Structure prediction request, 1384 residues.
Amino acid sequence: MGLVDKLFGNKSEKEIKRIEKYVDAIEALDEKMQALSDEELRAKTQEFKDRLAAGETLDDLLVEAFAVVREAADRTIHLKHYRVQLMGGIILHQGRIAEMKTGEGKTLVSTLPAYLNALEGKGVHIVTVNDYLAKRDANWMGQVHQFLGLSVGVILNSYDNAERQAAYNCDITYITNNELGFDYLRDNMVIYKKDLVQRELNYAIVDEVDSVLIDEARTPLIISGQSGKSTDLYKACDVLARQMQRGTSDGELSKIDAIMGIDIEEDGDFLVNEKDKQVMLTTEGVKKVEQFFHIKNLADAENLEIQHNIILALRAHNLMFRDRDYVVKDNEVLIVDEFTGRIMPGRRYSDGLHQAIEAKEHVKVNRESKTLATITFQNFFNKYKKKAGMTGTAMTEDKEFMDIYGMDVVEIPTNKPMIRVDHEDAIYMTKKEKLNAVINDIVESHKKGQPVLVGTINIDTSEEVSELLSKRGIKHNVLNAKFHELEAEIVSHAGERGAVTIATNMAGRGTDIKLEDGVAELGGLKIIGTERHESRRIDNQLRGRAGRQGDPGESKFYLSLEDDLMRLFGSERMMGVYKALKIPEGEEIQHKTITKQIEKAQKKIENNNFGIRRNLLDYDQVNNDQREVIYAERRRVLNGESMRDSIFKMITDIVDNAVDLCFGENTDKENWDANELNSVLLPTIPLQPVTFSTQDRSLKSAQSIVMQDSSAAGTIVVNKTKYFACAEPLTLYDRNAPFSNEHWLLLGIVPNSTLYKISNDMQSLLLVAVVLTLGVGLVCSYLVSRGLAHPIRQLSDEVAAIQDKRTEIPKLSRTGIREIDGFSTAITQLSQDILDTSTKFLRIMDMASIELGGYEIREDSDKVFVTDNFFSMLGMQDANPNDVTRERFEMLMEELVLQKESFSLQDGGRVFTIPQKDGSERFVMLRITGEDEVQVGLVEDVTATTLERRRIEHERDYDVLTGLYNRRAFDARAKKLFRMPEKLGHAALLMMDMDNLKHINDTFGHDWGDRYINLAGQCFAQTLPQNTICARMSGDEFIVLFYGYDRRDEIRQVLNRLSEAIKERTALLPNGDTMRISISGGIAWYPENGRDLATLKKYADFAMYQVKHEAKGAMGEFDIGAYNQEVYAAQLRREFLQMLRENSADYHFQPIFSAHTGRVAAYEALMRVKMQLLNSPLTVMKLAREMDKLYEVERLTAFKATSTFVMMQNRGQLHRNTKLFLNSIASSSLTDEDVAEFKAQFAELLNNRVIEITEEEEIDREALERKRRAMGDQGALALDDWGSGYSNSNSLLELSPDYIKVDITIICDIDTDADKQQLVKDIVEYAHGRGMKIVAEGIETEAELRKVIELGVDLLQGYFLAKPAASPSEIAPQALSVIRWMNR
Prediction:
């Protein structure tokens, strides 16, 4: 059904719709789960296990189990699964691959299927890409499972056998793919059962599944031991390789050269083919090798090892590069994975290549290894009963996942829309120009503080970029295989303001890059790729590091014609064209052919890599078949099972094979050679040497002689007479005469003629019976056939007589034979039915004025049956409707979809536009139906109905007032263009709004406003060129799409002409005055600002309203920075309103201590906000002022902070009889109703309440008076942040607070600042003279504490004493000691 998918829908979307009902059911249980206590929620685990034991399946438990995990995650790690995460969990449980974008929370998703499948008690393995992630996830997500009563283990590379056994026996185990595979191999090499560590391979969830099962699957896991072979030959070949000269050719023949018989032109000593990674010696090279090793012919069999090793040495020098393919660390060559950029510990190149590289790098050359055990990741993971995977990029490898692992890929939608901007590739002639452009881009982004992640494909490039940045003075971090251990640490800081991070490929995959506060306003994380990777998936992974969870971001790749992809796979003709143009240095090349060439090269390499992995799997499959048999036998031995039968069968088979080899069936017994048999048999089976006596040759077979414990029987010939002989050993005699060397046999001989007499007589009798039976049967057959022949012949003649009369019903005679007459009646009735149906169908076809055609595909056939006119109706005149294979048919239909314009109908059909030779268009509808085994397609000419519909639609496409397109028509035409990017070229979208229409409508009426709009429409129609689509969207808004331009400057010229034309147009008003048209416009560029119509509309609209607010009557271009800032601000506002709506702010409490005793005197309530973007109380206050929500924040603080305070006091987490300092807004106050409610709810706290009013803003006298009235004679006032704002002695007198809190800026470094000391001394004297108390806040050092106590403050607050917390701690012991010492 691939054709149907292409025409009518996406597989992933259908899968998501299919599982949405489960997601709805899970979310519906949310309130029920929240109502459960911790113990009740934990008890669900045992309940689920009991239900499984009672016969329910995991699928039966899925909905409730997922709801339990969701609630447990919220209670333990304070994360609650989003809807899309629930979808991902269901896909993983089904044993499939969930493709989820970066930052969507795949780690949290895995907790759902892991918990569900762990209920069976058979173990679940969560596979990560490195030890760091395994340990992190086990400690982090493991809290969820442990809360629910499951055991969680982790296995690291350093663990011993006992630790591994314990971890594998847990319900859920976090582990890397390498550890899993090597443990499997080691388990099948152990000698004692107690040394086994793994359980049965039940269910695996593979994180970054494309990295594990695709990238790392190219090399098998091998446990090896050293061989005894010397390494001197590698060193000798390395010396020779350094002396040999590389030829200029690549050794590859073009197709035309091969056809013409032209040989490769050889020069140098060897040729290198970088595409296929091969090296070949030239004639001169062969001579050099022969001279160096003093041999006559390198091709002789005894010199094959030398030939192999010199090729390895040349490959090491010319194809394997340090800091790209491998690194040298601690005098050891370590392989770098070309896809992940990570070091692969324990891995070595095979076939001697690793030794050749070691010789090249002058490190210790280790001996060649011999394989003790090996397995590929493909075969290993296929041993799991069920497996699943999750990643951000898997769809490009969907076919490989399905073919090799039996897992399909399902794309999961993102939780929030992706707003990352992916720019077009920047292409330069040389690598030098490209790198200069990269550095300039980094510097520009760094200036404004935007974090940058630079992706490189090898270590050389990353270090080159690092060196260039150092010269420009840009501080940066480098992540490549050399800094493998610091991977997660480096990546975790990549989203900080001003950070520049250089990384090879996957950039710490598995570690999220979170944006620091304020970075979103700068445009988010910027991704710069220095080169296209050979795999599209790796490029997508690099892009995916930015734009997580709705964050802003952008990405751009910089390329050059000297990049490996272009150099090896680019068209020489294309390269020659660009070089001939002599493009100035540093100028960017913009042409689609280069991008297409890159994509073509990437696809080619991806196919090659798939072929390599497929070949590796095919090769290992042979080993796998043997491995499974041997490992099964080993496990039987370890389990203590008896192997006697198996071993005895092996011995028997070996003996049989040895005898067959030495003697064979045609060897005369007199020629048996015991020495030959002994030489073959005895090295394998420790028997006594075999000898033959005359009696042995006569009576026993050779096998029986070898196997002395078995009796013998067979045929012998004596004097040309055959006898059947049988010999049995007399073991009883042997027991009675144990000291005798004689062994007795009981011999029986019977002549064959006597032995087989009875059987021969029976054979003769049986033959006679068979002959008689056949005779009787023939006679009966003849008699029956005579009775049937005449009526059948008569029936046949009548059928033949009417076979050409298709419209007549056959009238067959009666034969008198019941069966035949019944058959005749059936034929007559069937003919009548067929005629009726055919007549109706022909009448319908005659009445129809339309042409019909169709096809049929059957599941059991490779052929597709099509009508003669099917392809011609669809405009494919060259296609032959006869003998069409399914593969050919699907290819033709794909061409149809790609080449012909089409649109879908609501009832499921699709109408194709077929151009005709006369320039007209024909419209043909294709509708596909079918069941599992049969698919039927019907094509119908719908030209007349389509043209009529278009006529009707055409009348609805134009705006009556201006004659321009309306909104609907614009969208239809623009979307059609966006489906054909080649026609768009460089494009722009212009949104316009008339500035003074409202004034005209209000002053002169709507008729004059309509004339004003019409004037603007005429201006657009007369000024804009043909390659534009202009429409009136609504009211006074217009939209224009410019397309098909080669350069952006050409569009700017058109825009300038339009602006001038608008300024020249004037409207005559009823009062005789004239008014110039004033229009504000916003421009968004394609493809720089966006690649789809909706995005460009949104961006152009934003740019237009920016112009209207800043400079009416102008045209402004879209600014991504301003937009991201606005998006960030809008999200902040939404979260702020959500916080107010849901009452979701939390409050922490910081103790305030007595300066005399050190005891807690009060607590200050401090707001804490934990939303995605909104996480600062200062931002909350800023938004409250901007959105006029000060009252709402004031009320939230008063009620939420106070209720939390009372609850914690009741729980014993806060001291009783202490005061509560509540921050209050100077310009706002509660209503009388609020005050009454507060006093009723918190009556016992009123006297201990202290209202803090900050002096950072001027105090509103009316608000202050309302606060005083609300307080009455209960509670107190405090002036917060004294010394930072507007206060003076008069305002202090006016406010008359009970407490004055000295600002942190004054307390900071007060121990060394005499001016600050005098200021505090004065305010203390002032306050104490008026009965006020002084609070010193923000104390962070012991010296500051000593000084403020010395200056006479009353109360102390700060991090040095105790930090704010949900449940704050007591005073720090060191601070308490200082207070006691100062008050001693």
Observations:
- The CA atoms of residues 1080 and 1108 lie 6 Å apart.
- Residues 253-262, 706-712, 731-741, 838-849 have pLDDT under 50 and may be disordered.
